[in-house]
Amino acid sequence: MIYNFSAGPGVLPEPVLREVQAEFLSYKQGVSIVEMSHRSDTFATIVEQLEARLRRLMQIPDDYAVLFLQGGATLQFSMVPMNLRESGRFAYLDSGIWSKKAIADAKHYGDVVVAGSSAAVKYRDLPAWPETISDVDYLHVTLNNTIEGTRYTKLPDTGVPIVADVSSNILAEAIDVKRYGLLYAGAQKNIGPAGLTLVIIRRDLIVDRDLPSYLAYSKHVDTLLNTPSTFSLYVAERVLAWVEGEGGVEAMERRNVEKSGLFYDALDASPLFHAVVSGKQRSLTNIPFTTGDAETDRAFQRFAEARGLIELGGHRSVGGLRASLYNAMPLEGVKRLIDVMHEFEQEGQDVSYKNV
Ligand code: PMP
């Protein structure tokens, strides 16, 4: 049995993968889903179902549009400032490496006000929400910091639209959509294969601007502007059906609280490993941990890999170890990881960690 702790593309529900495999050669019209026109009625039904499921799961109000785009969350680092630009001043919370990249891209389109930053403490902590913020077009936040393993749980009342990157926590925990002006997420963690990006935007923020067509939100509302990542959309629709069948976002959050709680407890009790993030800011989905020694971390990664636990390396920019516990990671996977950590701790008492 293999358990995949990758931060993304991440683990997907096995029943969905089996269904996709079974349908791959012939989907309804006798051709493969990857050979089918995105303008066919069959495909249009998939997209409609996908949107309907997402709206039900996240309780997305009618005055929000749902857009299915490409270019990853990274393209949203540019599309957000291009499309929401009124005064040309944008506020950002600098809470991690992804928000830093978002800030760098936004600077191409206006003046960025960094409303809070935890860069000085290597993003181990979250910057506080600004007390007041005005004279900016929006305030951008990365709600869950995939690399650093921190997450925001409370939102302030601001007078400006909040834009949130929810790439690594969408559908993993409840997100109150109506508190936001815009949410965006790459699909490749909790939604489906890479190649699909979701944007959920309050309709009054969609303004016709003089932008190249693909880059304008207004050109994507209630239509597929061009050929989308059809396979990703199809799998995403099946994953969302699975989420609904399992009890929706509430059930996912309950499970993720249980899984991450078990893992944090094990880390807090371990004589060898410890969590990088402490306290209330701990992410439910991405958990960086370490022994404090880079070589021992690598030795554990190899030790775990040999036992079927893969992708436990930290992000290449920070090193260490990281377990991503997305919706499709079963509780058994977390229990197995904890057992293997105990085994490693035991063996380490007899032999050098470096030789395992
Ligand atoms: N934002 C966050 C929070 C992420 O976790 C990632 C990727 N893991 C990105 C942005 C970049 O996403 P993409 O690779 O889809 O451009």
UniProtKB/TrEMBL annotation:
Residues bearing N6-(pyridoxal phosphate)lysine are 189
> How are cofactors bound according to the entry's free-text note?
Binds 1 pyridoxal phosphate per subunit.
* Reported cofactor(s): pyridoxal 5'-phosphate
Q: Does the keyword Protein biosynthesis apply?
A: no
- Family in the record: Belongs to the class-V pyridoxal-phosphate-dependent aminotransferase family. SerC subfamily.
User: Tell me, how does this one assemble?
Assistant: Homodimer.
Q: Output this protein's name.
A: Phosphoserine aminotransferase
Species of origin reads: Exiguobacterium chiriqhucha RW-2
Q: Which gene encodes it?
A: serC
